[in-house]
């Protein structure tokens, strides 16, 4: 999998993806529509720790497929 810069392409709304933040941290997030504007929503409890106005998403990539169950 490769990183996709947000300036080049964005994922579909509601699809969880791995995102790289300006600070160098990574987390899972999804893109949503708020009153006609695109906005990132961090997934899970980590969302309480980041202000996406300063922690801008720079790149994203699809999550890997889960392992096959035996």
Could you give the topology of this structure?
Blueprint: E1 4-5, E2 17-21, E3 26-34, E4 37-42, E5 57-62
Antiparallel strand pairs: 1-5, 2-3, 2-5, 3-4
Task: Write up this protein.
The model has no long low-confidence stretch (mean pLDDT 84). The protein is built from no helices and five strands. It has strands at 4-5, 17-21, 26-34, 37-42, 57-62. It is globular and about 45 Å long. By secondary structure, the protein is an all-beta fold.
Put the structure in a nutshell:
With 70 residues, this protein is mainly β. The chain is built from no helices and five strands.
Q: How many whole angstroms does the radius of gyration measure?
A: 13 Å
Helix and strand composition category: mainly beta
Share of β-strand residues: 35-45%
Along the chain, the helix and strand elements come as EEEEE
Proportion in helices: under 10%
Strand order of the largest sheet: 1-5-2-3-4
The total of beta strands comes to: 5
The mean pLDDT is 84
Count of helical segments? 0
The first-to-last residue Cα distance is 24 Å
- Ranges where pLDDT stays below 50 over 5 or more residues in a row are none
Shape: globular
How would you describe the oligomerization state of the chains in this entry? single chain
Characterize the biggest β-sheet. 5 strands, antiparallel
């Amino acid at each position: 999998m490769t990183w996709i810069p947000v300036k080049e392409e964005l994922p579909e709304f509601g699809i969880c993806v791995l995102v790289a933040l300006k600070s160098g941290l990574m987390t899972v997030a999804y893109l949503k529509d708020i009153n006609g504007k695109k906005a990132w929503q961090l997934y899970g409890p980590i969302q309480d720790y980041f202000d996406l106005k300063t922690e801008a998403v720079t790149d994203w990539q699809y999550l890997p497929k889960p392992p096959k169950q035996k």
